[in-house]
């Protein structure tokens, strides 16, 4: 039995379909920047999503004491590359956001390709997971064609009887994350815009793995310059990053006992 009515499924599908705009926006340089931004172990970039969130929490008047913010790039070795940020309070998981870069399926019964999860209710109160997800809508602002705008479309309030304990606090944290995302994808924001083609960062050592994962799941979404990879001419310096189109390789085949060679494009 479905957890949702037919009308609810239609609404959820509309939200999840909007998220395709995120993948339409991606290119190889943006993917590389996102990996650096979310990988807290990366030494090649001083810009971190965790730092942006910490700073925005201060701007919003939230107390950072006892708060730990962590970010990850995970499952890239399982063909399911994802980005995640988790906010912990007093060592307890409070809230996290996940962005799936590799899209295997789109189903309105599931939680979407970009979603938040209210960990605190599950950790402390063992509430059903399906009530704790937050679906994110994505749109292109009419006056900014090279930007994305994120908003909370479903799950801002929690449909459980103890929601009044944490919901106000959770909503403030969600608002902070949305503000940071919108700043990163705002073409008018010269300081934070991730699509700035004049700012390059070194190639992360998992970028090409992630790009291959994205290319392997193209039934629903396709990023820009599909099939391209990244390489650096010399010493992996940040200003020699290039993209390469299909590379030719020689395939040896037997035909009627004779070995033939055929030039083949490999992506």
Walk me through the topology.
Blueprint lengths: L5 H13 L1 H6 L2 H11 L10 H11 L7 E8 L7 E8 L2 E9 L13 E4 L1 H7 L7 E7 L9 E6 L12 H18 L22 H9 L13 E4 L8 E4 L2 E9 L2 E9 L1
Antiparallel strand pairs: 1-2, 2-3, 3-4, 4-5, 5-6, 7-8, 9-10
Helix pairs in contact: 4-6
Structure, explained:
By secondary structure, the chain is of the alpha+beta class. It has a domain at about 5-185. A hairpin with a 2-residue loop joins strand 2 and strand 3 (about 90-100). The radius of gyration is 21 Å and the shape is globular. It has helices at about 5-20, 20-25, 30-40, 50-60, 120-125, 165-185, 205-215; strands at about 65-75, 80-90, 90-100, 115, 135-140, 150-155, 230, 240-245, 245-255, 260-265.
What sort of overall outline do the alpha carbons produce when their principal axes are compared?
globular
Total number of beta strands: 10
Specify the structural class.
Answer: alpha+beta
Strand arrangement within the widest β-sheet reads: 1-2-3-4-5-6
Q: In percent, how much strand structure appears in the residues? A: 25-35%
Helix-strand string = HHHHEEEEHEEHHEEEE
Q: Flag low-confidence runs.
A: 233-251, 261-267
Number of helices: 7
Largest sheet: 6 strands, antiparallel
Query: Which whole number gives the mean pLDDT?
Result: 82
Distance between the termini: 43 Å
Helix % is: 25-40%
Gyration radius, to the nearest Å? Answer: 21 Å
């Amino acid at each position: 039995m479905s957890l949702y009515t037919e009308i609810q499924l239609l609404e959820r599908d509309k939200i999840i379909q909007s998220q395709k705009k995120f993948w339409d926006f991606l290119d190889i340089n943006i993917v590389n920047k996102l990996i650096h931004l979310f990988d807290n172990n990366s030494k090649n970039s001083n810009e971190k999503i965790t730092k942006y969130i910490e700073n925005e929490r201060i701007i919003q008047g939230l107390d950072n004491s006892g708060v730990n913010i962590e970010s990850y790039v995970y499952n890239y070795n399982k063909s399911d590359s994802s980005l995640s940020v988790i906010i912990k309070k007093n060592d307890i998981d409070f809230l996290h956001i996940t962005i799936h870069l590799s899209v295997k399926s789109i189903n309105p019964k599931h939680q979407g390709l970009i979603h938040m999860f209210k960990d605190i209710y599950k950790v402390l109160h063992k509430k059903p997971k399906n009530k704790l997800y937050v679906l994110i809508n994505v749109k292109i602002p009419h006056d900014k064609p090279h930007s994305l705008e994120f908003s909370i479309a479903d799950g801002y309030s929690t449909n459980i009887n103890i929601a009044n304990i944490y919901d106000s606090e959770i909503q403030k944290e969600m608002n902070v994350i949305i503000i940071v995302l919108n700043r990163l994808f705002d073409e008018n924001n010269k300081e934070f815009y991730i699509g700035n083609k004049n700012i390059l960062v070194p190639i992360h050592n998992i970028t090409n793995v992630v790009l291959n994962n994205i290319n392997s799941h193209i039934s629903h979404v396709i990023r820009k310059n599909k099939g391209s990879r990244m390489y650096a001419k010399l010493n992996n310096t940040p200003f020699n990053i290039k993209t390469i189109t299909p590379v030719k390789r020689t395939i040896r085949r037997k035909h009627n006992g004779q070995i033939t060679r055929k030039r083949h494009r490999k992506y």
